Amino acid sequence: MIPVDLLLVGRVARPHGLRGQVVVNAESDFPEQRFKTGQVLLVGPPDRTMAREIRDVRFHQGRPILALAGVQTIEEAEVLAGTELWVPQSTLEPLPAGTYYRHDLVGCEVRDTAGALVGRVTAIEGTLDRSYLVVDGDVMLPLVEGICLQVDVAARRIVVDPPEGLIDLYRGGGGRI
Predict the structure, then answer these.
(1) CATH architecture, range 6-90
(2) SS3 of residue 64 by DSSP
(3) 112, exposed or middle or buried, with CB in 10 Å at 0-12, 13-18, 19+?
(4) Where are the domains of the chain?
(5) What distances in angstroms separate CA 149 from CA 44, 102, 173, one per listed residue?
(6) Cα–Cα dist 167/150, whole Å
(7) Rounded mean pLDDT of 138-145?
(8) pLDDT digits over 49-80, tens only?
(9) Model's pTM, two decimal places?
């Protein structure tokens, strides 16, 4: 079970070079904030993490390449492949209005403007500028102003006005967009 205050920010993809650096697949819309020199990441499964400071970071093709304290050889970096990277939720900074952390939206109830239940958000996919709500694992709704009319994180509710037929299209109803 994942401790309540830990948030997944990335996974080590593979080693990079011979000096213990690793390439990371970021699980954050804010990789420049999550992966910067001096930042401490919790590395490993959530119940057995080890704190590792980022000694150096650079980005290549949008992916962070990290040098972590205590990882100095390619052999040590190879052991980390597939390892999860976490931060405590308490370290997150507040976001501007109209912007949300992914973990705040997952689990929210989604209703249309008539009040009909669409489902619950099971995931967020895409990038910051092209995010989609995944509802009940099968419906993808663009997280944009014209479709997501109201987001109330405290009430765990999102009101949507999707284009006609969009939900039916995903659920096999043969609707047309």
Answers:
(1) Beta Barrel (2.40)
(2) strand
(3) middle
(4) 6-90, 102-170
(5) 38, 17, 24
(6) 18
(7) 92
(8) 999 999 999 999 989 999 999 999 999 999 99
(9) 0.70
What kind and span of H or E run contains 78? helix 74-79
What percent of the chain clears pLDDT 70, i.e. is strictly above it? 94
Q: Which phi and psi angles does 76 have, rounded to 5°? A: -65, -35
Beta strands, E only, the chain: 6-16, 21-26, 40-43, 50-60, 63-68, 84-88, 109-112, 117-127, 130-135, 139-142, 148-152, 157-160
CA dist 166 and 177 (Å) reads 6
Quickly count: other Cβ atoms within 10 Å of residue 157's Cβ: 13
Burial 75-89 (b: 16+ CB within 10 A, else e): eebeebeebbbbbee
Q: What are phi and psi of 34, to 5 degrees?
A: -75, -35
CATH topology of domain 102-170: SH3 type barrels. (2.30.30)
Do 136 and 122 contact (CB within 8 A), yes or no? yes
